[in-house]
Amino acid sequence: MNIFVYLIVQYPCIIHKQLLEETAPAPDYKEVFHTNRITEGDRTLVPPIFDSEESKKLRAKFEEQASRILYLLGVAMKLKDPYQMVKAHSFTEKKNPSNQSVVWYPKVDKSLLVPGQLRCGEHTDFGSITLLYSDAPGLQVLFSVRYSIWLKRRRQLHQGFLHCQSDE
Length: 168
Hints:
The protein has 168 residues and is of the alpha+beta class. The chain has three helices and seven strands; from the N terminus they run E-E-E-E-H-H-E-E-H-E. The strands form three sheets. A three-stranded antiparallel β-sheet has the order 6-1-7, with no helix packed on it. It has a two-stranded antiparallel ribbon with strand order 2-5. It has a two-stranded antiparallel sheet with strand order 3-4. Strand 3 and strand 4 form a beta hairpin. The N terminus and C terminus are likely disordered.
């Protein structure tokens, strides 16, 4: 099985900002459930299915991978303490607002789509990084003209994502 892991680094021009295509002719066909560390006392407020041991282990694995990438970003930025990025995100803290989302894009009969309707329209994610796990390729990364010019000036053109293959 191929697992496509997309790493999207949110550059300063788009951090803390989410843009959705406002001119889309119709909404996207998808189901989304976001989880984070909203708590009440010592209890994290999530539906029972996401409060299972299996879900907690999966979330911990995702957080571990994100921490590794944040560490590598600290190394790449040549920070005095490369763990500074990891510490700033503090996944182990209950007050951390990091989201993990379960998104399902069901197969849709194309005849049901309105002309020009997209399956997840153009948008900007928020936060420091986005890790997208998918068993099928399809993510398209669009860089703004301003950002593309910035990259070209520094000769740092890159794909913007990782593709990891797994035999599992």
